Each structure stands twice: as C-alpha cells, then as structure tokens.
Amino acid sequence: MNRTINLEVKGMHCQSCEMLIKDELSEISGIKDISIDAKTGKGSLVATSSKVTDAAIIAAIKNAGYTGVVFPTTNGNGHSLLSREEFDQHSAPVSFTMPQEVEIDGKIGKSDDGFWTIKGILRFGTRNTIVETVANAIAPVTVEAAGKSGERTNLVIQGMHCSSCAAIIERQLKKVPGVTDAKVNFAAEKASIVHDSSIAKITDLIAGVEKAGYRAISADQEDSKAQAERQQGEIKGMWRKFLVSLVLSSPMIYFMFMDFFAMPFKAVLLPYIGIVSLVLSTPVQFFIGSSFYKGMISALRMKTFNMDSLIAIGTSVAYFYSLVNFLTYNAQTGSILGLNGAKIPELYFETAAFLITFVILGKFLEAKAKGRTSEAIKKLMGLQAKTARVIRNGETLDIPVEQVVKDDIIVVRPGEKVPVDGVIVKGSSSVDESMITGESLPVEKHVDDMVIGGTINKVGSFEFMATRIGGETTLAQIIRLVEDAQGSKAPIQAVADRISAYFVPAVIIVALLTFVVWYFLLGATLSFALMAFTAVIVIACPCALGLATPTAIMVGTGVGAEHGILVKGGEPLEAASKINAIVFDKTGTITKGKPEVTDVEDYGTLDEDDVLMIAASLEKQSEHPLAEAIYSYAQEEGIKLAEVDGFSAIPGHGVKGKVGKTEYYLGNRRLIADKLGLDIGRIERKLARLEEQGKTAMILASKKQVEGVVAVADTVKDTSREAVERLKKMGIEVWMITGDNTRTAKAIAAQVGIDNVLAEVLPQDKANEVKKLQDAGKKVAMVGDGINDAPALAQADLGIAMGSGTDVAMETGGIVIIKNDLRDVVHALELSKSTVSKIQQNMFFALFYNVIGIPIAARIFSFIGLVLKPELAGLAMALSSVSVVGNSLLLRQYKPGKRNYVSQFAPAIMMVAFTFLFIEFARFSSTMAASEKMDTKAADANIMVAKTPDGTEKKFFAMDRELPKELAGKIPADGFAPVYIGGKKYLPVYIGYDEAKIMTDEKLFTKEGDTIKGFFGNDVIVSGILPDTNTAYDTYHFVKPGFEIKKMD
Predict the structure, then answer these.
(1) Burial of 592 per CB tally in 10 Å (0-12, 13-18, 19+)
(2) Are 310 and 300 spatial neighbours (Cβ–Cβ below 8 Å)?
(3) Sign (positive/negative) of CA torsion 229, 234, 238, 240?
(4) Is the pLDDT confidence value at 129 over 50?
C-alpha cells in the first residue's frame, strides 16, 4: 500500500536546494511524487514499498547537505499507518546523553493501543528545551547532543582597552580545555571560539575570559540593539570619567602656566602647588586610572605586558617619584608648603594627572569613532518592523513582531513595513526592496511571491503567511552576517598581531635604555631621565596599530552591506583585493536565468505537441531553470501533461523517466550520445544552427531513437557587458564557464565581450578548471549561484555568490551579492581594494607615529630644542589612535562606481598635519623642560645648588660661557668685576626675576645696588635684576666663575 510521508527540511534557501534534495531522494527505490518547498521548509513523498525507511530518507537529505525530520506517516485521514512493529523496524536508533535535570509538567499515561504518552511539557536541563507531545502522535523530537567538536561560540567582551588586551584574552581562551581556536577582535569587542562543547561549555569560556581580568557574555544573550545601547552607555561613562579627571587636573594646568607666564596670584600660590597637586592627582591616579592598573595586573598574570602596563608604569613613575620628593621635603623642613614663597622642587604630580586625563580623552574619542564604524548595523536594525498585524481566530490583532509565529497570516497595508519573511496568500502590491537589495525600482508582488521583512509596501494591500521569523529572517541574517564579518580578522591583521606581541616588551626595553643612557652615561638628573623614560613608555602604546585593521574592516563591510554587497569577513575582503582572474557561471549569473522556449522540433515518430508534452512532463519533476521554462511554455500552450514514473535527474546531462510504457531521456549531447549511444549525426547541422544563435538545445530520445529537440534561450542581463568591460579596465582576466556546448557558450560570451570560454564543463569539473587557472599563477574569483557551483566557489581564492536577497545565508561564497547585477561584482572588488588600502595606510600611520615619536620622546633631539613631555606624549598617542580611526571612517564616503577623492588624498594631509603636530608638541615641551635641560652633570661646573637653613634651594649659575639666548645682552661683558665700597670687596650677582621677588619679600635687599653680607659666605652686591623670561632662568643667581658657596650666615 502506498504511504504518504511528510518531511521538514532545514537549511534550504532556493529552488536549487529543492532540486538537490529531490535528486538524492529519487535515488531511493520505491519513492515517487516527491514534493519539496524551500519557501515553507516542508515536503512530502509517496513510498510505494515497505522497504522505504525514515532513516534512508533522512540520510538522503543529509547527503544533499541538509537536515531532515520525518513526520508520522498517514493515509490521508489523519491516522497513523505505522504499527508498533513497523515503527521499531523503520525507526533509526537514537542515542543521546540525558542532561542533569529533567522536568515534566503534565501527565504521563498509556493510550488504548499501548503507547506511552505525555500530555504537557517536558523540559531538559537548564536550557528550557521544551518538547510537547500529544496523545496518539509520535512527534519528531530533536535532542541536543551532549556535545560536538568544532562548535563555534561568539562572546561579547567588555573591558578591553587595546589590541594587547585582545591578545591576552586569546591566549587565556586557548588554555581552556576543549578549545581548538580563539580569535578576539578589539574593535568589534567580540570573541569567536571553536571548541568541543562536550568539554568546554560556554560557562567555561566566560570563566576563561574573567580569569584574564575581563568580562564576557554570550553573544546570543545580547542582540545588536542591546549591544549598541551598552556601548553608548560605556561611551557616556568614559566621557564622565574624562570630565572628572579634567576638573581635578585643571588647577594643575594653571600651575603649569605659572612657569611660563605672569599669571595672577602667582606669588601667593607657589608655596601651595605641591600639596594641592598631591591632593588632586591622587584620585586621578588611583580611581580614574584604576582600569590601567587592573589591565596591567591581568597582563602580568599572563606573563606579558600590554598598553595598560605602559600607562600604569609611566604614570606611577611620575607620581611616586613626586611623592617621595614631597615626603623628603616634609621630613627635612617639617612643612607641607613651600618655604620662603617658593614651590616645593622636583614634583611632577601634574605629569601623571595630565597623562591619565589625555589618555582617557583619547579613549573617549576612539570609542566615539569606533561607534560610528558600526553605523551600518544600526541602519539595518532600524529597518526592522516593531509590530505586525496578524489574523488569529478571525480577529485582526496588532502584536509586537517578536510574538509572530510561523504560519501566521499577516496583513500589510500601503506604506507599512513587512514585519517578517513570508509568502503572499492574498492580494498584490509593489514593494520597495531597496533597503535590502539596493534595487531602486519597486518590485511587483503577487500570490505565491516571497516578501522580505524590513521592506516597505507601496500601494496595494496583501496578506502573507510568515515562513521565517526572528533570527531566521533575511534581514536578521544580513545583520548577523555583517556582525560576523566586522568581528573577523583579515590575514593582514596577523602582521599587526605579531608586531604588537613584541612591541610592548620592546618599548619597555627602549624606555629603560633611555633612562640608563641619560642618567648613567650622559649624567642627566634623575628627574630628567625619569621623564624621558615616562615619555617613551607613553608615546609608544600600540593602540593605533591594534585599530588599523579592525576599524577599516568594520567600515568597509558596513558600507558594502548598505549597497547590497555582503562581505563575510576580513579574509574574503583581503582576497578580493588580490584577484586578477574572474570566472563567471553563465546561467543566472551572466544571463537572466529565466530562459524561454524558442523552438520545438520533431525528428521521430512523435509530432511537435507530443515532443513538448513528454519533455514538459519530465521537466515538471526538475527544478533546473531550463526545466521550468519548458514546463511553463507547455502550460501556456495548453498542453496536458502525462504521469511520469521512475523520474531521475542525471547531473550534468539531463533527466529520465517513464511516460506510459516508454522510458524517455531529455538532455544534452553527452546524455544521448555517450549514455544512450544513439547517433545524432543526422541532426547535428540543425543543432549547430540553434546553438550558433545562443540557444540551448535539449534532445528528447527513447532508448531506440531521437524523437525531437526543444530549444531554449536565456537572455543576457542588461548590465553584464558593462560589468565585463569595467573588469577588463581593472586589468582582470574574465572567463565564462558553463555546461552548455561550445557554440552556444561562445555566442553568449560574445554578447558580453568575454573572450575566454570554458564550455561543456560538468558541475564536478568546474572546480578543476578553476584549479588550472590557479596553477597558472592566477588569483581566481568564481561567481555563481552559490549552490550548483559550490565546489568551484570553494576551490576559488574568492567565491562570490549571486542571490536575490533571500540567499544571504549561502555558505560557499565569501561575498554575497544581493542584487543579481554583475556591476556589484565590480563594486565589491573596488570596495575591497579601498578597504585593504586603508588597512595598509593605517598600519603605516601607526608605525610612522612611533618611528618619529619615540626618538623625540627619548629626547635624542634635545640639542636642537625638541623635548617631549610625558603628558603631551600621552595626548599625541591618543591623537594617533583617533587619526587611524578617522582614516578608516573615510571609507564611509564610498559610492559604487565613483572615486573617493577625499579618502585618497586625506592620508597624505593627515601625515603632514600630525608630523607638524608632533614637532610643535615637542617645541612646547622644550620650553616646559628648560630647567631639566640645564640640570645635567655636564653643566655641574656652571650650576651650583645651595640650601638655606630652612631647606630652601638656591641655584647659582657660574658664567664662564655665553649667556643663554633668553638673557642675551642683559649682563654687561665686564659686569662681574669686583666692586669695592669703603675698602671692602663685594662680588657682583645678577638675580633672576622670580628669585629677586622672593628675596625682596624676605627683605634680603630692596633694590639694585644693595649689598648683602654673608650671602652663603660671600659679601655680594646686587648688580642687576634680570627681566622675566618665563623660563627656569628666572630662579637663578648669575655669578662669576670661582664663586664659592659656604654656609649661609
């Protein structure tokens, strides 16, 4: 007795999927009337033999590359046809590991025929896996296995500050048992882990991240909208931290300006600078800057260093050196204020505070810019409808789109968004799909046509049945694909990762060498050497290097998605930039893929109508585009079709089946000549004539003779020729590959300007043809439909899958073109070249900044006045990161087919601007560091330091060489000749502007010409008060060489 078996197939996308599944099922003996629907994911078949088992059907579907579930067999009346014995006989054994928790909410009982039944809900484990079973029905149950190897899990990472953080997390994740690979993207804040889920659970992965000192949650727990909101919250939090840090640091900025300008209240504030700076800088150092210490601790646990280590070390050196000097001064003088109106010397609290403030500012600007790189995701999320109008139990209800379930009937009125994917069941309209496909013209939609969630209904009203909801919708898949792409790494990123891995330790070594050379070899003061050490540590942070690749990929893939080009990650993006040969599939790629019957000829015992009737009856079972054309033409001509038994597809050749008592074959030359061994010489001339016109001739034959020919022509897309011409101008070699005969193939190729043709190639041989081109040294891209051309797409250096907007889940293509427009292939290659060019520019910038920044920070050019202070080094480092992100953002100006002049010339302008900025920072710093430049042992012969009884330092400059340029002409050439008053000898002294004010306040003298007795053991005369230079010279006493400092009287 015949049995109808119902199926559910997961993973189908198009008619080609249906064809592949039908081909596999037709190989099972005893099966007929196979029906598979990719739109609904359901199917059915008739089993004519009791030997047809569920296991065989599921295996056949699996062989086709999909997952199948067999529903209970019925005889059309809703009654099960399987007895208990048959069920035991035909069911495949199932084995799985039960979870630790099993919960039953309902009743267990026995039906009249002895089956155990559960009425209610059965929950497995803590995942709330729910299986509902109704009495007298054996429902398909999918049980998650205990674990599987090679499972990929994505985590959202929180708390990273730089690419070094990402490297630390990667290293820790790879230590988790069961993890085979882990990649962490700093810019996208995501980790992708390949692991054996039976060994490494998600909780283990999260624990691994937390062990490294960071936070993580499963990407499934946080959708794109929630992630965007969290990132906005983090950006606002960073802004608040910056404001607090700026408020605390502002007084110290005022103190710093007092060293250069005649600021109000300078004399009053000088003694308080030390204690105020200590109080204000401490919360900045240990509360605002706590994240840097945490990051350093995490790195040290992994026995490495990161950017946080550099900031923490640099600021700590400045802070604790200042703290030691402050406490020492307090111990010596018993005062926390500067004495005699002077400030406490050798304090650098402002350096630590400014450094943290500027780094936090840089992080804020960087996060703000990074947020803009993912605007494509936000735009896509904005397309999603919020509500849906469904018909349930005869009532029309407005419900949140999250509550829509499969098979719901949804009403869409003019101007409304289509909430989910589905199939129209009533009405017609035109729908604007530009936001998904990029196609500007509205698309006419009628009953049985697919509609895509997120598109906009224009004029008519219609009702459709939901087929894909939630994460299954086309828009959700696009968003997920773009997110995955933005979280991926390009191969070029490996270069940056390797550099970063060695860069931080190398920077610490260079900083230590800087300190050793200045302090021990060149004799600089401790403060000078420490500030040089700190500046090198800070300016060399590899933030810009870590951002170079991921920010460009995020912007590039986002821009591509906005224009209907879906790039699946950094690897295909980089591969696309290197392509120099491209192979196009013919049907549906170069041509429209909607062929029409042009000729029907009879050569045997049948007339033309019979030839068409038999051909259409056979092709009704096939889903090949040519088959659909023949079937549709027969319907238009009113031809009544015959029943076909034993239908079978012969891949690369055609189809066969029995009509009546005769077995017929319909296909190409190879099928008739090679498989059947029939002579086609007598019709060769007629076939050649058809093929020279670009038509595909399908030969109908029995086992005895050729009966006729059905010719089908597929017209070329309007944009194919333009695309080919543009590819040639780019220097790319263009090929066309097809299973058609050589004459037909060359006729089609000539229409679009392709000279290189590979014809009569079977599907399984397409990959070999691609490999031949690769062996010849070509970087090959294959463009096809992503299903029939899967082996070739996989073999090529880059697979480009053409889709209609519902094929975005294709696994074989690295790039998916949503519109069926070959010009987008050109745009994809142009975009990839622009993106990779941006990555290279960014990496150059990152290294360039370090190349020019480290020598300046190390004060190698101090002899020409270039000295970079640590706080300005921190600002320069932050600006370098912002410039890299800004350069990536220029990709947002990309427009298909147009040159992005701003993006082309901006890098050169930025390089000049930032070089100038570095030099100006250094010049400004050199003014700030004037006193440090003077305080070296090489100058000890000129500079002497003495202390008053209360511990106040007094500096003397012995003039045995030319005056500093700031004081040129201010002291006469003979100004140091001794002066005799009343027979007593007085040594001339010239006093700096600031020091003179202090001494007059102390009433040591009142005006020029006054004498001071016993001034450090010398009788002196104030020969001059020097003008204000806003430098350290204002605090010095200028004396004659040989001036001896003794105990002050």
Answers:
(1) middle
(2) no
(3) positive
(4) no
Contacts of 24 (CB under 8 A, 6+ apart): 60, 61, 63, 64
Q: DSSP 3-state helix, strand, coil percentages of the chain (rounded to 5)?
A: 45, 20, 30
N- to C-terminal Cα distance for the chain? 126
Token pair listed for 876: 């320069």
Contact 369, 889 (CB under 8 A): yes
Q: Does residue 585 have an active-site annotation? A: yes
> 696 near 712, Cβ under 8 Å?
yes
Quick one: pLDDT band at residue 592, thresholds 50, 70, 90?
A: confident
Residues 1021, 985: contact at Cβ < 8 Å? no
By C-alpha distance, which of 827, 772, 775 is closest to 800? 827
| Paired tokens of 942 | 């000129």
Residue 614: closest CA among 572, 654, 575: 654
Q: What is the DSSP letter of 144?
A: -
Q: Residue 994 and residue 604: Cα distance in Å, rounded?
A: 117
If we measure between CA atoms, which residue out of 1028, 581, 999 comes closest to residue 796? 581
- Report the candidate in 849, 867, 870 with the shortest Cα–Cα distance to residue 922: 867
Q: Dig out the tokens for 252 from the structure.
A: 């110290």
Dmax of the chain from CA atoms? 148
- Give residue-wise pLDDT tens across range 720-740: 999 999 999 999 999 999 877
Q: Quick one: how far is CA 431 from the chain centroid?
A: 31
Contact call for residues 338 and 273 (beta carbons, < 8 A): yes
Beta strands in 846-998 (DSSP E): 943-947, 953-958, 979-981, 984-991
Q: HSE (CB half, 13 Å, CA atoms) of 462? A: 29
Residue 490 has a pLDDT of 60
pLDDT at 729 (0 to 100): 92
> What's 652's DSSP letter?
T
Cα 13 to Cα 787: distance, rounded to the nearest angstrom: 9
Q: Which residues contact 336 (CB under 8 A, 6 or more apart)?
A: 274, 275, 326, 330
**Residue 432 CA: distances (Å) to CA of 54, 208, 378, 543, 561:** 43, 47, 20, 43, 17
What tokens does 636 get?
């238009």
3-state SS class at 809: coil
Token representation of residue 915: 């070089």
- Indicate whether this model's pTM tops 0.70: no
Among 540, 59, 649, 572, smallest CA distance to 310 is for 540
559: closest CA among 883, 551, 786, 571? 551
pLDDT tens digits for range 493-529: 666 666 666 777 888 888 889 889 988 888 777 777 8
Confidence band, pLDDT 50/70/90 cuts, at residue 410: very high
Average pLDDT of the residues in 219-231: 65
Q: Which of 497, 585, 785, 935 is catalytic?
A: 585
| C-beta atoms surrounding 290 within 10 Å | 12
899 in Cβ contact with 893 (< 8 Å):
no
pLDDT value at 829 more than 90: yes
Q: What is the pLDDT of residues 288-346, one digit of tens each?
A: 888 888 878 877 776 777 667 777 887 888 788 889 888 988 887 788 888 767 778 77
Are 427 and 460 within 8 A, CB to CB?
Answer: yes
Asked if 24 and 64 count as a contact pair (C-beta separation under 8 A), the reply is yes
- Residue of 862, 845, 863 whose CA lies nearest to 915: 845
Residue 96's pLDDT is what?
A: 43
Q: What is the mean pLDDT of residues 7-21?
A: 71
User: What is the reported pLDDT for 780?
Assistant: 94
User: Which amino acid type is present at position 930?
Assistant: A
Please work out, in degrees rounded to the nearest 5, the angle formed at the alpha carbon of residue 345 by the alpha carbons of 343 and 347. 100
Is the distance from CB of 1 to CB of 74 less than 8 angstroms? Answer: no
pLDDT at residue number 130: 31
Output the pLDDT for position 753: 93
CB 129 within 8 A of CB 141: no
Closest alpha carbon to 989 in 962, 1013, 961: 1013
